[in-house]
Amino acid sequence: MRVPFDVAAVRRDFMELGAVILPGFFDARRLKPIVAAVDEHWKQSDKSPLRHSDFDRFETYPTAWGPVAEANPLFLTLRDDPDLVALTRAAIGSDFTHGVDLVMYTGKGKGQAWHQDCPPDDLSKFTVNRLIYVRDVDPAQGALVYVPGSHKFGRIPPGGNQDPMPGEVHLSPRAGTVAIMNSLCYHRVTANQLNEPRVSINFRVQPPNVAQDYDKVAAFRGGTYDFRTEKVLDQR
Is-above-0.90 flag for pTM? Predict the structure, then answer.
């Protein structure tokens, strides 16, 4: 198996920066069947964003599809790709369990507010976003913005849902890019200004000491939200 990355560098960057960005990790030509499936599902879907009671305050509006839960072989093969498994092990160790696996669409005028994907109370516990970009993301479709090293800072500070934060980095990934990110990193997606949806795939995992539902509570700048109960736990 070809391992197209420096294992030591991946481990260092994940530990120090909380994120590893690898352009060209997958050959864009290999992803064409995935792109076709993603586009077909978008055409057939009702395009309703994820919405829960009281959730609008966080201005986070992705539309989600779970092809792995449907046992779609294209997405199962991609999730279990040997190089992706090796990359994951380089970042967090050999033992991990699978979490939620979703294709995330962001429609015109929508984005995702600053957030952390799990409770920031214990910095030793986190989930890992393994983001795969199957087509180029135009900057106007929504940049991935994160603050390197913020997985060490604790709870995300109060502020506006899309207000800039010191040290933030903007990324507009090209097809084939993989981003491995500690879910405690402060991150957001800027609003999509185009008609075409912004698309990413997230094959989330967690270390063995983290429960599979640990990502059901997320911290935003305006408060904390529990996706299980569909309730705002606190406001800031």
Answer: yes
